Structures are given as C-alpha cells and as structure tokens.
Input
Amino acid sequence: MKFSEVGFRAFYHNFIVVPMKDSLKGILKDFPGVDSANCILTYGYIDRMAGFTLEILAAASMDSEKLSYGAGNSERLSKIRIESVMEDECFFIDDEDDSMYKLYSDKLDMLKNYDAGDEVEETRNMDFLDSSRSPEYPDDVLVYLLKNGNKPEGCWVRIDALAEHEIIGTLLNEPNQDFGYHAGNQVAFYVHQTENKEIILCANLN
Output
C-alpha cells in the first residue's frame, strides 16, 4: 500500500514496513542488522508540528515467506517524515496479540507525548474532511475565509477543538486580504456542500 493512495489512517498507530532505499540508510546507521536489511520496521503517528511521521523501530528483512527484524535502539528516536516515502510500497503488520508493541514498548511509550486531545482525535476520524486535508499534515485543512467585500480566500488552518456546530482551528498563514484575522488567530469553520456536491470548509468572518 502507498500512503499517497490509502491516506493516513492505514498508517496511523500501526506497524508499517517501509522498503529500504539509499536515502534512508544513514538514519539506520545505529541499528543492528542494517547492513543486511532490505526494509525498515516503523510505527506511524502524527506530530502536529512536523506532520505524519514513521518512528523507526528496527532494521528488517522481508521475503515472500516471512519478515524478520532485529533489535531496536531504545537510546534514540529516529524518524522518517512521510513525504520521503509517500510513493513507496509499504506493508501493514498486524499486531493482534500486542507482541510487537510489548517488544518495542520503551520507544512506543515515548510517542505518547505526541498524542492529541480527544476532540482533535475525533476529527481525525471525520472522513468528510479528507478532501480538505494536507496529505502530510492530517490536522491541517484548507478553509475558505468569507467576509463581505472580500473574495473567498483559502488558508490553512490547524484543527484545535470542536464546537457545537463548528470546528475551531488556528490560522497558519497570513491572508492576502484584510479579514481582521491573522496567522496565529483562532477561527471557527463549518462544512459546506457546493452545488456540485463538493465538500469545502468555510469560515464566516463577518
């Protein structure tokens, strides 16, 4: 499966095998078995500031019959940002009995520092937002700012919380027009369906 095709949920909080390539070998230099590895065992999570990330757990080898992986390196965190492997054919590893999680629990427990609040987590399950999401930053969505006298303007907004009928987020870039809001300000936005049945996100700033 490719991240660019299946989206972030298939990788999120899952064990993922990434193919080895020259650009990744340097990151694995402190992991046992890297010289004979043809793939990398990773775990997917979201860093809200840096985007979707794969934490490296071990150098691994995979053939048509089995996957074998070496010891991890609990002394350091080593990461692959998703943009570097978005088009690579990756593989999901089922950890139904939690044996892999227990094996790498020291490192995986550190990743809990990146957990978002319950409301942000809830929005990650809202697939109607997907057409507006940044592929690499799942919490960042394209929102059209609306104000009388201005043209609709698309800006990136990072989701922070839920309101009764709206979503609250932080404006990430400075609008070109004067909306009375600036980068770093919070805005409330809502879901709108166009005449063409397209789902877009809008913030009424009047």
Q: What stands out?
A: Residues 3-114 form one domain. The chain has a mean pLDDT of 93.
